[in-house]
Amino acid sequence: MIKIQNLSKIYDAGGQKVIALDNINLTIKDGSIFGIIGLSGAGKSSLVRCINRLEEPTSGRIYIDDIDITSLDKKSLREARKKIGMIFQHFNLLSNATVFENVAFPLMIAGYPKKKIKERVYELLRLVDLEEKSQAYPSQLSGGQKQRVGIARALANHPRILLSDEATSALDPKTTKSILHLLKDINRKFGITIVIITHEMDVIKEICDEVAVIENGKIIEQASVVDLFTNPSADTTRTFIEDITESLPESIKISSKPDEKFVKISFRGSITSEPVISRMIKKFDVDVNIIKGSVDNVRDISIGKLLISITGNPDNILHSIEYLKETGLKVEVLTNELVDR
Ligand SMILES: Nc1ncnc2c1ncn2[C@@H]1O[C@H](COP(=O)(O)OP(=O)(O)OP(=O)(O)O)[C@@H](O)[C@H]1O
Ligand SMILES: [Mg+2]
């Protein structure tokens, strides 16, 4: 478990103080894939780099499995860091060393005997599917292959935690997917806790269990990924998730007639296939127009959003909306304010 308590980081940039992290509190469960999302400059890298003390916290505590990382001396920190692997956006490989040598590097530093190093390096290269590239240099590899080397190197010392700072940001969407699948595999196979920093909601959606949103050095929202998608509460979170009420025609904004209501429905999982709406139409004798709809696959759960207009007798409309709510759907009746947001 990673426990971050009252963590602050203030940089001194030529006499000017920059508050990068402002009293962060987070708990990251063992074996989970935890995403941290935020805009550029929000403090993501500062946060993840404090976890292994690549950056020294200004104040606060970080516990990993009940060891206070923030209080360790240099020697104990070196030991502790073996259990924390890290991968980077620009891979950070040694350019004049082969793939084999790059992966062997942390093992050499840890003082493994030569034979053991060779065994372990090939084991890792098999894991990331790069055995045949062991003698290649980084310049001879694609971006995705470079990141696979980065991952193999990060796993060399059997870490319990893997920190990933925008590890897929320099990759195309297809390569990004394959790297994310590899990370998921590693998480499942070895139970390694993975902390993923990103500015892309697609990354979070693909593999994270939980997510925290960071803004101006503060955590403004934290939830399971499915909850965040179904029901984002902070405005910044909404900007990461396309909302179906965005860019709607003027006619919807001005409509507030009692015999017509615009309703946004969010649902997840099996309810997707239930004919709730057709039942509602029959039961309450109203008309329904589907204006817009979307389905997002988050982990293995589908999250649907539907924007409908309900027309008919005003009382029947109100009953219809109640009925939708009773079926467990999240229902929002649009007001001008909501549409304008
Ligand atoms: N070494 C430094 N010295 C001074 N200020 C810094 C330093 N590193 C980061 N900052 C500042 O701290 C704030 C947070 O930066 P950080 O790199 O953590 O953001 P980020 O969320 O990782 O951004 P990005 O998505 O662009 O990588 C920014 O205002 C940044 O300018
Ligand atoms: Mg960063």
From TrEMBL:
InterPro entries: AAA+_ATPase, ABC_transporter-like_ATP-bd, ABC_transporter-like_CS, ACT-like_dom_sf, MetN_ABC, MetN_ABC_transporter-like, NIL_domain, P-loop_NTPase. The keyword Translocase applies. It comes from the Bacteria. GO terms for cellular component: plasma membrane. PANTHER family: AMINO ACID IMPORT ATP-BINDING PROTEIN, METHIONINE IMPORT ATP-BINDING PROTEIN METN. Belongs to the ABC transporter superfamily. The keyword Membrane applies. Transmembrane segments: none annotated. Signal peptide: none annotated. The lineage of its organism: Bacteria, Bacillati, Bacillota, Clostridia, Thermoanaerobacterales. It holds the Pfam family ABC_tran. Keywords: Amino-acid transport, ATP-binding, Cell membrane, Membrane, Nucleotide-binding, Translocase, Transport. GO terms for molecular function: ATP binding; ATP hydrolysis activity. Residues 2-241 form the ABC transporter domain. One of its GO terms (biological process) is amino acid transport. This is D-methionine transport system ATP-binding protein.
